[in-house]
Amino acid sequence: MAVDKFKFVSPGVFIDEVDESAIPELPERMGPLVVGRFQKGPANRPVKVSSFREFVQIFGNPADGNASGDIFRSGAQKAPTYAAYAAQSWLRNNSPCTVYRVLGQSHTDATANAGEAGWKTTNTPNTTLIDTGGAFGMFIIPSASAATPVTGTLAAVWYMNGGSIILTGTSRHGKITGDTDEGAGMFIESTDGTYTAKIVSGSAITDVTDTVKFSFDRDSKNFIRKVFNTDPTQTNSAIVNTSADSSALKAFWLGETFESAAPGGGDSQVAIRETAVTSRGASTYGIILQLNSALSSGGIAWHDHRQDAKAASTGWFISQDNRGDITTGFAADSHTDRLFKIHALGGAGTTDPGHGEATNRDIKISIVDIKSSPNNFNKYGTFGLQVRAASDTDSSPVILEQYSSLNLNPASANYIGRVIGDRVYRYDSTNKVVDVLGTYPNNSKYIRVEASPLVEGNGAEGLLPFGVYGPVIPAPVSFTTSSVSPVTESAWIDGKQSISSEILHPSHSNNKIIHSGSHGVSHSQVTTGLELDLTFPVTRLRADSTEGGLVIPSKAYFGYQSNIPNKKRFEETNIDLHRGKPAALDQQATPVAGSTKYSWVFTLDNVSASYDIAGHGVYLDGTRAAGTSLTAVNGGVDGVLNQGFNKFTSPMFGGFDGFDITEADPLRNTLIDGASELNSYAYNSIKKAIDVTSDPEYVEFDIAAIPGLTNDTLNTHLIDSCENRGDALALVDLKGNYAPPHEHAEGPNTNLGSVDTVVSTLKGLNINSSYGAAFYPFVQIRDTINDSILFVPPSVVALGTMSSSQRKSAVWFAPAGFTRGGLSEGSAGLPVIGVRERLTSAKRDTLYEANINPIATFPAEGIVIFGQKTLQVTPSALDRINVRRLLIFLKKEISRIAATLLFDQNVQATWNRFRGQVEPFLTDVQAGLGLTDFRVVLDDTTTTPDLQDRNILYAKIFLKPARAIEFIALDFVISRSGASFDD
Fold it and tell me: Residue 828, CB half-sphere, CA atoms under 13 Å: how many?
């Protein structure tokens, strides 16, 4: 007891209490590493989850691959997420589990036009008529704009690898003799909100394969997303089976639609263009133009989405008017300071992939409870931040995470970066290490913070988050007509072009516009001096605090609104507005003058008092500059905050998965077989996952699995990585097993796999390692979440069986046999109801001789894992899974004991302390039937004086692993009646 803490003045007895009974924290358990595709969640970095509930919250439910409907917009999985089933099977009986979600990333030296991540449709130039393939955009103008100037808003995009799409009907200028009122580049009138399109298979307008009537009214049976194909995978001939139905293979898919911005979109909606709102009229006009290398002077090719996975983010949150009370000439993008922006949590890569596209659909960010500094001693105000469900409403917000009393003072405990976190992980492919960038650990499950240099430099005194930048979109494009010759396609969109009227009424082949009839139309036959402005739709901002039926003004979140006006219905157009755009259009970058622009810049500085309802507010751009906003009229930020208008919302946008969306499984084996990391982003993405997790000091696990992967090179790389680590067993699925439908275009009962093929595959790999194990065949499970039945790779149930076996007994018991390997009895953690192939005794023998563990079926016992060999060919105790897992367990636990001795004195007392901890530990393992005997040697015969001088402690640990019974021989001897068994 330290007596100096007592005050001794007069005599007495002094008593204190010292609690040394605290139980030391046990080391965290390891669990397996599961790599693959998941519905959502942080990508390209390992994330540890402790329960299936937590797994679902972060990564979503397993997907059975039976998704249907609007695949492009929903992002639903068209192939089973085997890795998610593997995680579920493990977490059913054990925890934790480390999950690595793979998103697409290409190699830094990727082969051009071959190895890039993402997707692209094929565009074939045509010198006489329209280019075939690529992307086609439909622009719509209301009848109110039918006269000069004409304003068109992009309403839909189709993607094609060949052919084109045209409109047919009544043209804006009327039919010209010899021509047909149909084509691209022609205004077609709609009097009832419906249009008719023709799908053209080639470059001739007569090559029509389909005619479709459609509208932009989402409640109509002709709604555009109901009548066109919205499943990109149906255009992939490598995976679409046409044997029973030749029409199953589609020529195109409908991509983005912006029905909320299209006149005739239903729900009493309006078309938003620039800062003006134009009501739809009784009649509208549509025009289809190609979006290939056009619609911006920056050369945005709308059909080219080749880019790595990318994190969604908000725009920069900006301050109030940084000039104080000055209002003249206020511009939100010029007279404010950038403070911070929010990114989706990401992982290791040259760029941060975040959660990919899922964040665009799932969350939005609200800044709430903004308060200015109460005094001159603390010049930093405070605010809160909410992570909200993207589809909620302001009247019923769904808050996923909430942070209160944040500030912009880097020295404060409530600094936004410190509270939420700002770390990002980057993989150094040269040195094969993961670098951690940022100062503060990430405490959020969804987001991280990027602070501006101004904030990081302690220069944000007095500033508050008062607004936010919206997504970057293409700048408006303007055309005019004149008597000059038609310009080339590349010059169509480049500022304010003066072009021939033939652009708007097709009659000239040099403009590459589909039409029929003669080309000799004079300019006098169409309106001259016609002006056409093309704009890109934008997300909606709250117009006033009463919207949505709000009675209490302070409940209104100004800024971005995700619902249909005055309805609680989510505006699904937002999904297409916020999704990752073509590689040349970075929604998160600073706009380039003449090429791109902010869709909007919101600021509370432009909120004014309502003229209609007392206490309510309205948002109108320009009111701060006009001196009519609350901050202008009432003398600064408190003018609007004191009215209760202290919150606003921003979308998350720009997230991209980096996958080829025409693939049901963008990591399918038939796509990466024979490939390399240079010419296949899928191959590179999986290899990088193995490399990132190869460092045992970065991530711990004792089993590794990439369920469904059968690529020989990558599986060998996974086994080698586990062996180099020395602390994990790789569960691999071998080529020659069943190939699911998403792997090929053949029928469902083909590519079933065979024992001979799998055995031949393994022999060809020449693997001799106890750090790998393989099983056969695929098994059929019941998915109780999706109420479906599907086949899953054997590694899925093997992992689940190891989990239940470990829970029932210990890691050194064989995860096989009727007691611990009974799949029909629930050992896999998933309901197993069948196998892809029933194995005879001879086939089981063939597999086991090749070190492949059979999954057998028996009439009475059901389905069972009937083997536990590793892939080690050399006979030894380590050719069995239970012994290999025992050694992994012992090495990890004893190394933890040894780590506590580092930098202690290398003397007998330290040696005794080591033995005093290791021997009882091994005794417990022996009592648990993991060892038959052991011996620990640590004395001067192992740690010699020479080693002591070199600061080395050297011990030898001798082990006799307990072997599992795999063969039982019983002799039943039939004796005569008079024989005695005592003899």
Answer: 26
